[in-house]
Amino acid sequence: MFGAIKSFIRNFRITIDYPRYEREQRAAHLAQADRRFDASQLNKEIAQIRQQATAAGDQRFGSDVASLRQRIAATEQGLRKDRQLLSIFERNYKAELDALYAQKTQLFEEKEGLLADAQAMKAERSAAHDDLQEAYDDLEDAKSDVDRWYAKSERTPWLFGNGGKKLPKHSLFGQSHGDLSSAKYRRGEAVSDVGDSKRRIADIKARQAAARQAIDRNYAEIGAVMEKIGAVKKDRQHMYDLKSEGVDPAVLRTTIQTAQSTLTDLERQLRSSENQRLAVIQETQARLGLGEREAAVADLLSRKARFVEDFDSEQSRATRQDEHRRQWMASHA
Known about the structure:
The protein has 333 residues and is mainly α. It has one domain (37-288): Helix Hairpins (Orthogonal Bundle). It has helices at 2-36, 40-90, 93-154, 177-244, 249-287, 290-310, 314-331.
């Protein structure tokens, strides 16, 4: 019995200690993989070969490629300039201005309508405030009539009241319950009128806010159209100035056509020189053994990956567990 307990405790301690041993063995295994499958020298040789091959290609064709690229850049810059100048002559300034003037007229007509609507809403709001004040006045009058009726009905006859008297439902000359009902009805109507006036004012305020936004938008659009008109007129004046300086659109078209043809030929020459440069680089790389070294690096990396993966195989794990148990038992004998 005691031996079984002792064996259980020993096995438990070995199990608890194993993760530490596993981490140490994994680190050692990875370090061994880096040493056994080190490709640093091969990678250094590959970099040197690439550098030598590029230098060989540049020595043969680098100056031609650089010169052609500079000529292409200069030709493209001249083309952009001439095309921009030609676009100034090819615009229909009258049509552009006619369209902008029509838009300007439409916006100003819209502006007049918006301002007229805003003025009408202002007058409508003023009238609504007058109606609200009238409703408040009617409400105060009706409330006063109700208060006076109760005061008189409760006041002593010695003070011209009806205190202690039974009042009729209706009376042509004296106080009656009909008078109270009439005052309360007028009070209710006045409360309703106050609510209606407030809602009417709120609706007008909302419409005024929307109108202000529309006016602001209209002013912004007018400003934008005016700026566009000014820009078109400025461009048109630039065209007049170019003409007075002797710039001829027909000559520009011929120049552009010639430059485009030159650019096409330069680009063809550049592609040819770049292909020849690339051929020299590839031939030099092959002659210096770049392909063999790259294959050797790929083989090293493949074998290293298999070596690293083998660490997690069931057989390797079982071997480590046995070795860990052996070492633990030896150190705790």
